[in-house]
Design a protein that fits this description.
Elements: H1 2-17, E1 26-29, H2 31-40, H3 43-50, E2 55-59, E3 64-68, E4 73-80, E5 86-90, E6 94-101, E7 104-107, E8 116-120, H4 133-144, E9 147-153, E10 159-162, E11 168-169, E12 176-179, H5 184-189, E13 193-199, E14 202-211, E15 214-222, E16 232-243
Antiparallel strand pairs: 1-2, 1-8, 2-3, 3-4, 4-5, 5-6, 6-7, 7-8, 9-10, 9-16, 10-11, 12-13, 13-14, 14-15, 15-16
Helix pairs in contact: 2-3, 2-4
Length: about 240
């Protein structure tokens, strides 16, 4: 009887160690790219080093997985094996593999992309939020959050607040902003970081440099012909902002 009890106890302990795979359902963001951008100041280099994908959204109930790279969105269906690994199938016989490792969602290295790691977004996006908005808001908060003082330029001495939702207060001539993450804006700005500033229906591209707690914003001058894609280079400095 004692031997039977020991056997049953051993089986119970062993079965308790085997837990079902965790559910990856939810939104995952590329925190490593955000951290690198904050540490170095160079946004484009950080995105190139730790991207290209910036956000994954996993819908376990519908078995859908979608990614955003700051320019385009891709969606596929997935299946899970007994180890919990996700095999994501995209249109055109294109596949990616992902798995959970600790608190991270790991996208395995493939012929298309290097290994990339993601953490859960701080908050679930709203039902109408566009793809990539969770990464964007986390980046905006970490990279441009806090209070800035205009040290040079129009509005000198004023305070500027860049909000996570893309609104900006205190910067003369602007009420919305957007950092360039990928796509045409990145191709047009080349080696420079760029952002879009908008007031009402009017907006334009600007180039910027961030070093520590300083942010310099320059005019984006175009060296291309009128029938060519713009090719921006730095013009006159418009603002120097200092983070408090």
């Amino acid at each position: 009887m004692r031997c039977l009890f020991v056997v049953l106890l051993t089986c119970a302990l062993l079965s308790g160690c085997v837990s079902p795979p965790r559910d990856p359902n939810g939104t995952w963001i590329n925190q490593a790219a955000i951290d690198a951008a904050v540490d170095s100041g160079n946004l484009r280099e950080a995105l190139l080093a730790y991207g290209p994908n910036l956000e994954w959204q996993i819908d376990s109930q519908r078995r859908l997985a979608s990614f955003s790279n700051g320019f385009e969105r891709g969606e596929g269906t997935f299946e899970r094996d007994t180890n919990g690994q996700l095999r994501v199938h995209f249109y055109g016989d294109f596949q990616e593999s992902m798995s959970l490792s600790g608190d991270e969602l790991v996208q395995a290295q493939s012929d298309t992309w290097p290994e990339q790691r993601f953490v859960r977004a701080p908050a679930a996006p709203g039902p109408l939020a566009p793809a990539g908005s969770s990464f964007e808001q986390a980046l905006y908060s970490a990279y441009l959050g806090g209070t800035w003082v205009i040290k040079e330029g129009l509005g000198k001495g004023g305070l500027v607040l860049f909000q996570a939702d893309g609104s900006v207060q205190g910067l003369p001539g602007a009420e919305r902003y957007a950092l360039c993450l990928a796509g045409d804006c990145a191709a047009m700005s080349g080696e420079f970081d760029s952002l879009w500033l908008q007031l009402g229906e009017q907006g334009q591209n600007w180039l910027f440099e961030r070093e520590g707690k300083q942010l310099r914003v320059f005019e984006a001058l175009n060296r291309s012909q009128i029938d060519e894609m713009p090719n921006f280079y730095k013009g006159q400095q418009r603002w120097l902002l200092q983070q408090r």
